[in-house]
């Protein structure tokens, strides 16, 4: 599409008059209502067939190839690709009108083709979902000159995100200068690019050439020259358009030559100094800093200019140092996460520097000193934003996530083990600098000690956290004592979380933590507090169960802590499945305060079970069992009577081999129970770069969600511990759950 498409002929020009703004959803809905039959803006299938099919044959991926056609409109491009054997095609467009029309047109003849109403600047697909993205005019439509490059930049960021390594982005474009400027710069580092012209049948009339730009995704920072496949014989069109394209191609290859010159990438940055003197809204550039002869170390870095330069900025330019242990976290690894850091930093330009193994034995002071001379030339020369420009000595800004402080007064590693499934696992006892006074009131005679479970693959994340108590204190307490539920630091190991324990009186140290034991009457994790609060959704059902077992439930508020009191002389009647044991704190808390609850906990890693028992006082009984099994499989194998046959052994310890319930049915106030009442998913993701901290992506798959729905009783409760910094991922998860719930 694009403004120059208006020159193609009177028929197209008449249709285009109905659009006006190419980025308006309402305009496109109106257009597709008027023009329901297919319409090709440029480059029809007879011209595209050979180059496209030849390109798809080069992709190293099992068939069928997962293909994405963004801004599909009512073009027949994807239909032709489907008929040529490529059946795994997903088409997206933000016009509901055209998606509905295309679905009706293809549902019978092309049943495997998918159609989605979606904004291509914020696509709801997982990272690395497609091996090829085929754009026919989508980028051109977003790049209306008067609207700038913001939408085009967002769209290309999404393309880069959803492409698999080795995948290709095929952009069919009229190659206007502002489109090429964005396209070339966006895919400069770590991408191979080639350009070609689509041959057209000679009509004797001037026409616009369609160019095919192909970029291949590499996991590197290498800068490649753009390969030109242009032949004069195929360029039978507008000479001004061709000369402009050729000039832009030559200029871009000169820039890329500088990046790959013998003097190294740092010297290339110096050559591009004029480009970096001014802020460029939404620019993101990956570079390498330093090296032999100019610095002690070399560094991988990303330059990010704020997306909205009109915002009030605290700093004109800042440096954000990411330690090696956090480099693969989604917040720093992904483009979306990096832009979140830029916004929170209040810097007009942020230079994100990634440390690696070569910096391990170097102090942060030495790192800062080494970086100072390297980053100084990268600061914008003009203070257009009115923000403070720090001196060189103040430019390096270490943020609170750094290892300088975690808000801890003491930290003692009491156990470390490596699991083949989880990797390195740490159990540590800590004393926080500040603790809420309402928590101090639990054990006022001493300084409070917390025991934490940490996985080294996500060292900044506390998997489980328990308050420790003195053994004698436990014996002096009257039973049953109220169970206290308090939202605390949760799992994040940073200053913000530790400071959430407001300043309170500090006690004398009660001695080494090996004289203490875990107190299961207190929930230290805000994540667990959130999970337990979900029980209020089925409170009426639980009251009914409690009444049938001669139980009483009461709630009150004391010291701003929620108190849950349950007294019972009845039998266990509510079935719960908890996927993910961790330290066993959540099931132990529920076991202690809800005596009519039968809990089946599922844990994949037997090493975790050993740790829960040895270091967090986890114990099984007739109402609390643990199974060594895959959580998804466990839920699938629950039959209609609530029975799942799962068993396993580890380290010569025998774990539960009994079914989910010894009896096939249990009566709840005259109602026969044939399914599970509560399913809780509380597991972390093994890939911190995926954008999901919790749970693993498979637990949000529609198939699993449908299985959960099938296994839950009529009054059942499903709780997922969902942790992500990405709003798009959270929205996608919620959308899936709503979709399955409403089926």
Automatic annotation (TrEMBL):
InterPro entries documented for this protein: Lys/N-term_MeTrsfase_sf, Methyltransf_11, SAM-dependent_MTases_sf
Keywords for this protein: Methyltransferase, Multifunctional enzyme, Transferase
Gene3D superfamilies xref list: Vaccinia Virus protein VP39 (3.40.50.150)
Family designation: Belongs to the methyltransferase superfamily.
Keyword Thylakoid: no
Protein name, as recorded: Methyltransferase type 11 domain-containing protein
Coiled coil: none
GO-annotated biological processes: methylation
Keyword Metal-binding included in the entry's annotation: no
Database matches in Pfam families: Methyltransf_11
Molecular function terms, GO-annotated: S-adenosylmethionine-dependent methyltransferase activity
Domain Methyltransferase type: 71-171
Positions of region (Disordered): 478-510
